[in-house]
Amino acid sequence: MTIKNLVHTAQRAIQDTSGYSFKLGHIYELLAATLGFNSYAASCADHVFDEDPDYRARADKRRFGDAAARALELGHTREVAFD
Q: What is the value of pTM for the model shown?
């Protein structure tokens, strides 16, 4: 699956589950935050998405709090960010 496909799939799932609208760019940012990066640009500059062992370690930490914090920075309400 490409990152583009992953983001589109995540956007549909998040919108279907939450009932809130998310821009694709925000989904890219939330994905990066979930993986421990400060921004999607930082993830692209620092890392290639693949099946490296570090990915599993970051994913196991469940960085959903980082994604929620990033959603707040992007202007979403607390209700949307933490729902």
A: 0.61
